[in-house]
Amino acid sequence: MGILDKITTADELAKEWNVTPQNVRIWCEEGRLEAKRLGREWAILKGQPQPTKIRPKIKLKGVKKAVGEFNNWQGPARIYLDRDNLSVWTNVYSDVNSWTEHQGDVVEIYNKLHMADNCNKTTMRELQEAAEQYILN
Fold first, then answer.
1. What is the pTM of this model?
2. In this structure, is the dihedral angle defined by the CA atoms of residues 95, 72, 36 and 121, taken in order, positive or negative?
3. Based on CB atoms within 10 Å of each CB, which residue in 53, 68, 100, 109 is the most buried?
4. Domain containing 27: what range?
């Protein structure tokens, strides 16, 4: 059995689960399926259970943008949550000594402080879950 026998596409999985391919792609983007992006397509590990169709309890603004900026930035960065307006964002910095102070009910969820921390990445699902913990607790 080769590696290609262990993966499937969003279109194939959508047919199997009777959902739209877009729904499968969203689950991949959110980290709800074990998958890797290959250009514009997803290579999805076969044999995974179908994620529930239930959306997150709390609707956050800015999750996709915050995750993209955080994961793509090659230097120090922090992801913040504003609990008052339920939004998240990433601040990127030229050096670790230039952190920004924020007003209101703002908390830091993730950070990477040094170039060596570039392996610190997050998914939309992880960010959503972390934010929910800060909001609900």
1. 0.55
2. positive
3. 109
4. 3-45
Q: Is 57 left (phi over 0), alpha (psi -120 to 50) or beta?
A: alpha
CA distances from 41 to 7, 13, 35, 46 (A): 12, 13, 10, 15
β-sheet with 87-92: strand ranges across = 87-92, 77-82, 106-112
pLDDT tens, residue by residue, 98-108: 667 777 789 88
State whether 132 and 67 are in the same domain: yes
Provide the CA 80 distance to its chain's centre, in angstroms. 14
Same domain, 31 and 69: no
Domain contains 125: yes
Say how far apart CA 9 and CA 46 lie, in whole Å.
Answer: 9
Do 33 and 94 reside in the same domain of the chain? no
Burial of 28 (0-12, 13-18, 19+ CB in 10 A): buried
Per-residue pLDDT reduced to its tens digit, 47-84: 999 987 655 568 899 999 999 999 998 888 889 999 88
